[in-house]
């Protein structure tokens, strides 16, 4: 029975991994990674790592992939054609991959570890359970545990610093709108960031408005100032 | 199942992830392939932990998961920063550090 589950989970994990690498659209790659992670957590369960299987599903398949999906939908799928010489480089890298697998296979077969051919050490009740993991983390591995929390804090602060909006830098207002600068092949007026910050406006229903809006975009800083009604009133009073 | 089978699956997943890192040009997919490689390492760590009947390997795998989460956060922050500067999301174009 465990052999059947192992082969199903292993095939699922390998298919998910191949899907991550080969699918052209990054969004489908992320979905494929979810399938891979769930299959992998089944393998973890077979290896009696209950806590890690649960953590894998919750942390990876739940949280990290949501982060990926957000960034993929923000950045868009940057599907680019292969450049010149790309095919040759791909063949060379495939050769490297094959060599790496042969090396790993030699390492596994020639390791001389007799226990590799067995089912592992006899199962002790509580092995890999949350209790044993938690106890080990707070006694034997207290320092790595604290360092991991520090690393998470540093990474969270660093990610915010990297991705923040820079004040004083160039903003969308300073750059004349140019179609070629936008990387995503997304059509305009489909919820782009440029619209969200008010630099672009969807064409209105009124045909006269449409004619005005289809004129080339001028950033607000370079537009001719429009006299406000208040200024007009002041002029009349004078 | 024998522990050796888990190691073979782990080696295959690692090689697939390695091939993805070498061939793909979208940094998002490269991060995903790095995840694959880290997961392959996790699988073999847990397999060895089962082989020895010692849960220390599982702690190691847990720490690897923490480091992978940090790597994802920083990597995705970098990608968002690249996108904000309107640079192409393509590792072949972003090669100013190549020397």
Please mark out the parts of chain B with pLDDT under 50 across 5 or more consecutive residues, or reply none.
none
Briefly note the CATH topology name of the domain at 1-80 in chain A.
Answer: Four Helix Bundle (Hemerythrin (Met), subunit A)
The total strand number of chain A stands at: 0
CATH class category of the domain at 1-80 in chain A: Mainly Alpha
Strand content of chain B: under 5%
Biggest sheet record of chain A: none
Structural class of chain B: mainly alpha
Query: Architecture of chain B in CATH?
Result: Orthogonal Bundle
Shape designation of chain A: extended
> Given the structure, what is the number of helices of chain B?
3
Corresponding CATH architecture of the domain at 1-80 in chain A: Up-down Bundle
Q: Mean of residue pLDDT of chain B?
A: 88
Low-confidence stretches of chain A: none
C-alpha end-to-end distance of chain A: 95 Å
Number of helices of chain A: 9
Arithmetic mean pLDDT of chain A = 77
Q: How many β strands of chain B by DSSP?
A: 0
Oligomer: heterodimer
Radius of gyration based on Cα positions of chain B: 17 Å
Largest sheet of chain B: none
Q: What order do the helices and strands come in, and which of them pair?
A:
The complex is a heterodimer of chains A (238) and B (99).
Chain A: H1 2-22, H2 26-46, H3 50-75, H4 86-109, H5 130-138, H6 142-163, H7 193-196, H8 207-213, H9 229-237
Helix pairs in contact in A: 1-2, 2-3
Chain B: H1 3-23, H2 27-52, H3 56-84
């Amino acid at each position: 029975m465990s052999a059947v589950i192992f082969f199903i989970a292993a095939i699922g994990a390998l298919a998910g991994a191949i899907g991550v690498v080969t699918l052209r659209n990054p969004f489908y790659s992320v979905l494929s990674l979810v399938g891979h992670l769930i299959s992998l957590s089944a393998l973890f369960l077979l290896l009696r790592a209950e806590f890690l299987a649960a953590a894998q599903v919750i942390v990876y398949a739940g949280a990290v992939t949501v982060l990926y999906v957000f960034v993929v939908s923000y950045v868009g799928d940057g599907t680019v054609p292969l450049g010149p010489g790309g095919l040759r480089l791909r063949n060379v890298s495939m050769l490297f991959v094959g060599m790496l697998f042969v090396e790993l296979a030699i390492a596994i077969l020639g390791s001389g570890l007799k226990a590799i051919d067995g089912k592992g050490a006899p199962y002790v009740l509580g092995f890999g359970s949350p209790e044993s993991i938690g106890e080990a983390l707070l006694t034997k591995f207290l320092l790595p545990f604290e360092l991991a929390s520090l690393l998470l804090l540093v990474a969270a602060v660093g990610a915010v610093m990297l991705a923040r909006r820079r004040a004083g830098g160039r903003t969308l207002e300073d750059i004349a709108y140019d179609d070629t600068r936008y990387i995503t092949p997304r059509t305009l007026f489909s919820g782009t960031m440029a619209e969200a910050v008010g630099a672009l406006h969807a064409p209105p229903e009124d045909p006269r408005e449409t004619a005005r809006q289809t004129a080339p975009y001028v950033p607000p800083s370079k537009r001719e100032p429009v006299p406000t009604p208040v200024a007009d009133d002041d002029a009349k009073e004078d | 199942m024998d522990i050796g089978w888990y190691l073979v699956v782990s080696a295959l997943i690692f090689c697939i992830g390695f091939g993805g890192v070498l061939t793909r040009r979208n940094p998002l997919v490269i991060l995903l392939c790095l995840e694959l490689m880290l997961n392959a390492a996790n699988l073999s760590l847990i397999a060895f932990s089962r082989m020895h009947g010692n849960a220390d390997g599982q702690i190691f795998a847990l720490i690897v998961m923490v480091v992978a989460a940090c790597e994802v956060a920083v990597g995705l922050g970098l990608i968002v920063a690249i996108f904000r500067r309107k640079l192409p999301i393509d590792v072949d174009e972003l090669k100013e550090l190549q020397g």
